[in-house]
Design brief:
mainly beta, 30 strands, 4-stranded antiparallel beta sheet, 8 helices
Amino acid sequence: MKSAKIQFIRNVILSATLLFAIASENFAQKPETNNSAEKICSVSTISMNRICKEWDGQWQGMMVASDGNCYFASSTHSASHGAGFHRYDPRTKKHTVLAEDMTIICGEENTKTQQGKIHSPIIECDGWLYFSTHLSNYWKEGIEKYPGAHIVGYQLATGKFRDLGIVRPRYSVYSAVNVDPVRKKLYVLSVPFLDSLIKTDGSHLFSIDIATGEKKDLGLVTDKKKGVSFWFFADNKGNVWFTLWKMHEQYDFDHGNLYCYRPDKNKIETYKDVLPMGKLIDGTEVTNEKMKRQRAWTWAKALPGNEKCLFTMGSWGGGDERLWIFDPSKNIETGEAFQDIAPIGSTFLQVALGGDSLYFIQYENIQFERDSAAESTRDLDPDKFGYNENLHLRSISIKKGASQKISDHGKIVDMEGRALRFSNSMAADDKGHVFMYGSWYVKSLKEASFQILFSKYPGEGIYKLMKRGEFFGVADL
């Protein structure tokens, strides 16, 4: 009864908020975002909030599959609605909602909890896509009720979902997922969010047998700490390489470590303090001691053959502003295994590899990119602070012998003049399509996100109609 009452109140609030906003002349202005003098990267967009008002953001959760389609997620912070899963065909420009609520796919629609996010990479193996769910309602009550993150498969040929179940009860996955295609094993990092579990346990590496669904605890990674890793690199020998993100968690034992799970030894090995020291785009060394201790991969992607991987360590991973290749066949302790490819400036999750090109989104001013967090500025009231977000799409070629010059494709603006305010989810193909999911200025109330203000009103279910909306976008370069 309590849940039904909360849902009823929420719907009343939504209706009232929409009616109030319709009556307001100051909301949903149609700002002129294009300056004829500046270079524009034109993007075709699809409004996600016309489908579901509570989809309010997305980190990771996007990839281009072997069928040429882009698969992506849309996430919430909601107590009443889960994440969506989508397909976009760049040839026909058709968008399909494959699942509007992952809570239902996971069979938990009657549990009064939500699988509100797909906050993991999406990876492919033998015609299936695999990803992890994640909790959405971060306030105390939501964390206490959360049953645990699921691993979910989606078969490309049939459109069938497969729920491989909860990895570890009451633990989420945050957020790395990858696969050993030889042994047919999935790897995930199981992470506690309950204070009691953090204080008595920590994060564990798990493997999941794709054929049987059997889950195996491979060992504790962070003792009495909430360990977080965004990316795994599974090499051609089946070894799984990863780092720990240290923006919000500090570890006495890790000031730049690289970890490797070796299946032939059934052991997690630690290479202490081996990640490269940071440098800015102009070659200036990062001297801030706190940032030095935060060194971690903020983006990683295997190169064809899985012998090597690309990685970055942007402003949220120690401050380094270069693109790197990691080659595990070379000496790690001496630094020989790490080769810097090109200075590209500060990045985070908004990076994608398509063919021989690396794409990334940055503020036009690189210093502003270092000092700002677009996820925070996206919620500033544009009627008070202006419609001045200036995010650009940039790229470099990684082709051997090619110029390392950065190409600036211009300010990201869609076909109706909306400008991008924030993106942490990207993918690209080898045909020049760059896909992005993010928060944009809106021109209609129907495009605006309806977000729960969990940080200000924990557990109260207070929602607000934002002056931004969630859009999936495609740039055709």
